[in-house]
Amino acid sequence: MQTACALCGVFITAEAPQQWMKEFRAIYVQDDCWEVVRLSGVGLCRENGTVAPCGYKKRYDDRVLGPGDKISIELSKLTLDHVAGPDQPGRRSRSSSIRSSGFYWGFGFHAACWDLLAACCKPSLRKLFLACLSTPIGDDGILDWGHTYHGAASHTAPKPFRLKSLTWDAPLVEGLQADPFHVPAIMDLIEGKITPMVDDALADHSPSLRLEDIGAGADDFYQLPTEFLENVVSLLPSQDVRALRIAAPSFALLELTEAFWQSRFNHEYQYILEALEANPDSWEALYFSIRTLEHGSTSLKNRKRIWDLALKMKVLLNEVAREPCEGPPACSFLEPFEPVDDNSWHKAARGVRTTSDPFYSGCRALRARAVTGNGPLSVRQLFVSLVQLGSGIFVSGLRFATKSRDDICLGYIHPDKEYALDFPPECEHESLYTIAGWYLALDLSGIRAVAALMDNGKLSSWAGDPQGFPRWRLAGEGVWREFSGVKAEFDGLKMVSLSRAVLEVGLYSDRTMVTSSLWSPDVPPSDLYYDGSQRFSFVDSFELPFSVVMFGGAKGVDLSDLVEIGIWLQGYDTITGFDFVYTDSSKNKPFGHIGRYSNGSTEIVYKHSGSHRHALAIDGPGLEVVKSLQVMQEEDSIHGLRVRTNTGRIVQFPSHYSRETTWTHVHPYGSTVVGFYAKCGAQLHNIGLISDNSINFDAALENRKLSPSSSHRRRKSRLSVSFGQLFKP
Fold first, then answer.
1. Where is this region: Disordered (predicted)?
2. Do 25 and 119 belong together in one domain?
């Protein structure tokens, strides 16, 4: 398998045309010794593998290296089934393929890139290793930090979460392959061999301005000491200094000293590491010489690119440098010797990969923390810790402020980034609030936001960013509402799952489809009925959410305005989506993919192509509604659909479908169908009906048949009366 540098995104490969691309360092462990993360010496990638000296001060070409001084290190493993894990509760067990000892694995960096990273932030090896272990890996061994390495990688279609290195991409080859660490021209500049160009805005913005032109009221800085003004400009980036000199006469006349020009190498030119030990004749000349060089030197451009990535890594490691993971530990991958709790857990997660799953996307559960009690979870306050990663904001930990004034913490707690949930005032009882469940917003990488569900059904405020992410209502119903424990799983950076333990025996009667599924755009009401083309099975982790379209509106108020359902097909017979047309066009709704796919991606273009629309007319004003479905589904695609209405009509899509196969009948448990749900990937699958038992269009339609009218006006008048009679007493 290929591997890419964990910092710059360019391949570490024996086939590279440049020597620096073959040289690497690795942060690695032996077998499953997580506590001991080492840095290798400088190794050389060869056709037979990645071999490096054990000692970090050594190089592969040192003459004094003996046979035992080098080790083979496997880089960027897609799975973790090669190391011990908690396959059996409370003990280690190894897969049959694991070697008894001496198996070294980890993550690689170009030696040049590691030197830049070390100069930028001197990273903790353990924290960096856990961060890499928690980050998805592409087919070519590139880590997906949530960015594209400033142009060295791109996301591939049709799966936008797959990252691909562009090391050999023709327009980028020269820039990506230029050695970022050894730039001989910089030393030439330090020795003053290039004549500098002067930037007027910095050096002398307004030469016609005279000292006598500045009066007491010229600007707010007039009476400040010159030394103070010099300190101010030394602390500012050059673009801010430029703006300040344009705006304020006092700064325009300020002489920019050598100390100021030297300070530029702590700002925009901090990646010019050679300047740290330099003593040039003129810092100003060096500054403008670098400005000249950076426009033409591919090596310097590549260094700046990688330095910016090192700064991102520094921010990331500062964000997650909050070990340990707080709370009572439970048996997990990194901690297999911890006790296994005996509770039954109702769990919510998305995209969690097992150790044997290729880690192309999603997240890994590396640690677990659990707290249980003998009664409902009552708190004075609940604080949520958040962490900012490359792909956005995630929940990293929870802190419960209890009645006893002792805090219970779960996960990575960030005191400076904690957010207190606002509980509804009516939920307070003797200064305590009882939490009955959770609302979660999840993406494939973890939990984006969390809110608490109170014992009276009210919802607290959100902590995090829930907008645009599918949601999970992790709660019980009725007598099962209260729960007595919380369990969370974490990778090295953030929370990846949350679970609740119930007070009563019989957890599985507590789990309904609504409370055990991921939904988009929001969790639908629990008092409706959900009947699908496939039997619902309880799982702890989802990939795709169930998408919902309530085309009937609340209590079916929009059904009498529905006049057409558009069924969209891709190719011969693959159903990809629907659209719903009403007498009031502002109510029109899309569902799934409507239109066509563009260039092999999931992006839809609303034009002609292999995608086509079939129309099903619905007499909503005449109280016609969808009654049931018949579905022809193969694997993850729907290839045929029959819609039956309450008037007895049955319409098939596509109409020419003639395959001899079994159709699955989907009948609603409730009296009136008010919506559809389905998993909407590239195609629809597991489509189902959402029905409401509190309304009955069939009864209203029968009443209308018994009272025929000879005029359209009288029919319209009686329609409003009939709709009022739809609701059951």
1. 706-729
2. yes
The string of DSSP codes covering 395-440 is: EEEEEEE-TTS-EEEEE---GGGEEE----GGG-BTTBEEEEEEEE
One domain for residues 106 and 233: no
Report how far Cα 416 is from the mean position of its chain's Cα atoms: 22
Q: Are 80 and 336 in contact (CB under 8 A)?
A: no
Q: Is the pLDDT of residue 174 over 60?
A: yes
* Alpha carbons 669 and 176: distance in angstroms, whole number: 60
Could you tell me if 540 and 349 are in contact, meaning their C-beta atoms sit under 8 angstroms apart?
yes
Q: Are residues 399 and 278 in the same domain?
A: no
The tens digit of pLDDT for each residue in 494-530 reads 999 999 887 555 444 567 889 889 999 999 998 999 9
Question: How many C-alpha atoms does 437 have within 13 Å on its Cβ side?
Answer: 26
- The tens digit of pLDDT for each residue in 539-590 reads 777 788 999 999 999 999 999 999 999 999 887 788 999 999 999 999 999 9
CB burial string 24-56: b at 16+ within 10 A, e below: bbbbbbbbbebeebbbbbbbbbeeeebbbbbee
**151 and 268, same structural domain?**
no
Q: Give the separation between CA 616 and CA 575, rounded to whole angstroms.
A: 14
In the chain, the number of structural domains is 4
Instruction: Name beta bridge partners: 630.
Output: 642, 665
Measured CA to CA in angstroms, residue 608 lies from 569, 570, 605 at distances of 12, 11, 8
Q: Which domain holds residue 284?
A: 202-296
Q: Quickly count: other Cβ atoms within 10 Å of residue 336's Cβ.
A: 19
Residues 626 and 666 in one domain: yes
For tokens 């309450």, name the residue. 646
CB distance 189 to 633 below 8 Å: no
pTM (2 d.p.) = 0.85
Residue 596 contacts residue 611 (beta carbons within 8 Å): yes
